[in-house]
Amino acid sequence: MAYCTNCGNQVADTDRFCSACGTARRERGEQEVAVAPVAAPSVGLPPPAWTTAAASRSTTYADWADTPIRAGASPRHASDPFERVTTRSSWTVAALVAAMAVAGVGIVAYANEMTLVVALDEGRRVSFEELETSDNLVAMASLLGVGAALFGAVTFLMWLHLAWVNVERRGFGGVRWSASWAVGWWFIPIMNLFRPYQVMSTLWRASQDPTDNPGSTQWAVSGTSALVGWWWALYLGSSVVGGMFSSVRAEETIDFQTWLGADLFLIVAFAMQIAAGVLAIQIVRRITAMQEHLRVGG
Q1: CA count, 13 A, side-chain hemisphere, 228
Q2: What is the rounded CA–CA span in Å between residue 225 and residue 207?
Q3: 21: how many CB neighbours lie within 10 A of its CB?
């Protein structure tokens, strides 16, 4: 058994060419290397291609492997940027403003309906045109409300997801959920009564922590703004009051006073939605500003 003088591959006595690199074997009588090579040949030949490729792969892996991965973060290279959330923040604020405007339309629509119901209850004359206009206004408010709710939910959750990704990339210790779960909790019954508040509270605290040390838990001892608590209370309150309107309207028989009470419930729910929207805008802007400050190295 001999070895190829070019690449060091073991060659059978009956082979005329090396099966690894194709180099022709020496004729009989010519000296062949009879020992396995332990280093590159000393005859000035370049190293075999497979050794160069292996070295390249080894260097690339080592470069990645030496990159510090922070606790709780997804594997990434240290040069990956801290994501900007300003664009998604702008869209979210625009969607919240639109939702607040639609809630204002709803207040006008149902206040007008209440006026007509009071007139009918008191026996005053109400024209068919007035009733039709009121119905059209209520229908428009309902349709716009559905669109505004969808637009607002999509933009807000997209902003939330990216802002949470930034928290993950900072690698803080003690962060309990991934970016996907930060969004997913909103869709799970029972859990969506309290978990989104915890998510926003964590996001606020982690975004204001100036430290950038892997595994840091300093964020956990910082305080959460009262804005987050009031926003969540108003958000849940508007849902509860709106649900009361739906339950009353679902009754088979309803008198004028009950109808007025249902409309009043919905007007209060709209007012709470507007208040919650104002606070949500402040929260989104503050968290965005804090993350932008961290992104530019502040």
Answers
A1: 18
A2: 12
A3: 14
CB neighbours of 214 closer than 8 A, spacing ≥ 6?
Answer: 68, 70, 71, 171
Dist CA 82 CA 165 (whole Å): 9
CA of 162: how far to CAs of 9, 10, 158, in Å?
Answer: 53, 56, 6
Kindly state the average pLDDT of the residues 102-107: 95
The tokens for 181 are 């779960």
Residue 90: the pLDDT is 96
pLDDT in tens, 3-35: 777 777 777 777 777 777 767 766 544 444 444
In Å, how far are 60, 112, 149, 263, 280 from 106, measured between CA atoms?
Answer: 60, 10, 13, 10, 20
- Torsions phi, psi for 187 (to 5 deg): -105, 5
d(CA 293, CA 18): 63
Residues 102-133: b if buried by 16+ CB within 10 A, e if exposed: bbebbbebbebbbebbeeeeeeeeeeeeeeee
Give me the helices (H) in 209-255, please.
226-249
Which residue carries 């009733």 as its tokens? 131
Q: Is 264 exposed, middle or buried (0-12, 13-18, 19+ CB in 10 A)?
A: middle
pTM for the whole structure: 0.68
Query: What angle separates helix 86-121 from helix 128-170, to the nearest 10 degrees?
Result: 150
Per the structure block, which two tokens stand in for 166?
């930034």
Q: Considering just the CA atoms, what is the radius of gyration of the chain in Å?
A: 34
Amino acid letter, 252: E
CB 4 within 8 A of CB 23: yes
